[in-house]
Amino acid sequence: MSKKILVLGATSGIAEATCRIWATQGASLFLVARNAEKLVAVAADLKTRGAAYVDFAVADLDDTAQHPSLLTHAINSLGGMDIAYLAHGVLGDQTAGEQSFPAAEQILHTNFVSPVSLLTWLANYCVQRKSGVLAVISSVAGDRGRKSNYLYGSSKAGLSAFLGGLRNRVDREGVTVLTIKPGPVRTPMTAHMPGAEKMADVNAVAAIIVKAIEKRVDVLYVPFQWGPIMGIIQHIPESIFKKLNL
Ligand SMILES: NC(=O)c1ccc[n+]([C@@H]2O[C@H](COP(=O)([O-])OP(=O)(O)OC[C@H]3O[C@@H](n4cnc5c(N)ncnc54)[C@H](OP(=O)(O)O)[C@@H]3O)[C@@H](O)[C@H]2O)c1
After folding, report:
1. Ligand 1 pocket, residue 117 CB under 6 Å
2. What is the widest separation between alpha-carbon atoms in the chain?
3. Is the pLDDT of residue 69 over 90?
4. Among candidates 87, 76, 113, 104, which has minimal Cα distance to 33?
5. Ligand 1 within 6 A of 155 CB?
6. Domain 4-241, CATH 3.40.50.720 — does that match?
7. Mutation to probe ligand 1, out of 31, 70, 85, 90 (largest number of atoms < 8 A from CB)
8. pLDDT over 90 at 1, yes or no
9. Rounded distance, CA 210 to CA 13, Å?
10. 10-54: per-residue pLDDT in tens?
């Protein structure tokens, strides 16, 4: 049976690479993104790679009021849903956010409030059917606040905490919640950063995510070494951590 997969933020570098793998497996895909031109190109590419079915909707996922109708439409189009994959997010402008709350709020809204709205609806849909996987991209940046990106980091920390609680609620209902915590990955989000060429390859990261969804893993650090690295970083005493330039 072809897997029915809903992808939110489908034009993201990581999501696109993941969808390419699902397409070769013959999955049915419903794609949501806000950039119509990119979305049409991604949808056409996935069809040629072997997806059994591809449909899409253009939507700004910051608009939480539209989420229930968007999700209903997507699931009707797919004829059900086995996996929801949430990949949208913004790095945002840390410096601007330090000076102006609206800039800070924008990061928190896209990375935290929007996924919470989507997941509240999706979790209830899955619980009613006693099945489904909710796979959500958070970040290692959420494991400890750093001065260089604590707005992005705190939005992802909130998301990871929400996912942990949601998993605790729905696991016994047959629903899997996967928290994906990538380290730095070479995508449009990080292309401008120094050392981007040394970051993890997006196709390798996508292959690991696909396997973790199949195995119904709870929390995935990808590449795997970011688990132990963040374990060490979390244990650095605050008296030392506050003096570091991270
Ligand atoms: N790359 C990394 O190193 C890294 C590490 C850890 C976690 N992550 C997370 O991985 C996820 C995917 O990021 P990526 O690396 O693949 O970067 P990316 O290519 O920049 O993807 C981010 C995507 O989010 C979409 N988006 C942002 N705001 C949106 C909104 N309001 N409505 C709809 N779509 C919106 C963007 O759409 P537009 O194209 O229209 O802007 C873009 O397609 C993000 O959640 C990111 O935080 C990335």
Report:
1. no
2. 55
3. yes
4. 87
5. no
6. yes
7. 90
8. no
9. 15
10. 999 999 999 999 999 999 999 999 999 999 999 999 999 999 999
CB-count burial class (<10 Å; 0-12, 13-18, 19+) for 240: exposed
230: left (phi over 0), alpha (psi -120 to 50) or beta: alpha
Per-residue CA distances from 212 to 122, 131, 135, 181 (Å): 20, 17, 9, 12
Domain range list for the chain: 4-241
End-to-end CA distance of the chain: 47
Prediction pTM value: 0.98
As given in the structure block, the two tokens for residue 212 are 């973790």
Determine which residue's CA is closest to atom 46 belonging to ligand 1: 89
Instruction: Give residue-wise pLDDT tens across range 167-210.
Output: 999 999 999 999 999 999 999 999 999 899 999 999 999 999 99
Positions marked catalytic: 152
